[in-house]
Amino acid sequence: MTKEKWGFIDSGYCSPAFNMALDEALLNWQSQGDIPPIIRFYGWDPATLSIGYFQKAKAEIDIEEVKRQGLGFVRRPTGGRAVLHEHELTYSVIVPESYPGMPSTVTEAYRVISEGILMGFRNLGLDAYFAVPRTDQEKAALKAPKSSVCFDAPSWYELVVEGRKVAGSAQTRQKGVILQHGAILLELDDEKLFSVFKFSNDRVKERMQKNLKNKAVAINDIAGRKIGIPEAKDAFEKGFAEGLSIDLVPYTLTEKQMLEVKAIAESKYESDEWNFMR
Predict the structure, then answer these.
(1) Where is the active site (predicted)?
(2) Domain range for residue 36?
(3) For a designed S-S bond to 115, which of 85, 86, 145, 243 qualifies (C-beta 3.0 to 4.6 A apart)?
(4) Active site residues
């Protein structure tokens, strides 16, 4: 049986504005039927704090501390909470809502797409599984998170190892297309992460930081060996191919497409109007 062919892009390390602009451009091109479904890997230069579309930037984030540490800052087009992108492999998936076998609901689509991430973790020898909140209390917590930090708690069908979250993802649907992107943690610097958020007092900050260590973990804290970006890329590229039962074919952007991405980055994701809209 012939497998569907999807495009594969490894963007390397890019600016925060370029990263979000390329994901948006891929969504637009997909909606126009110009490109196949895409799996994309990327990194961040500089290390960046990204916030969800609905987050209140100035109320939740210490912007001066972000600048002092030389971090990038960008608002994502997807929901969810803030993520510090540093020691991680970031991925995005762009696929039509009408793709065969793709569920119509967000949570079930997460499950299908995240099969690729699940297989990636297993390729690294980690016993990952999907988080499925079962109690009413757990389900209520998803609707009213206590923290602005993405990895504070697992959401529906996100990946956990030994009960702790190892990947955080967010999804949006626009123009008949699903865009899901997320962070796969290799290392977690919780001191740096919590230094850029606003808290009502130090005691709340300490409690949240302690809770995070119980709820989130990085690959290199549990793998028993040092896993670098090249090995992670190989494991998750194969994982997506296995989990989604597809063949991945390298996809190269044209010069015209690159100019379009740069225009979106400059007009939108580099602008204070977008990043501080809430």
Answers:
(1) 150
(2) 4-275
(3) 243
(4) 150
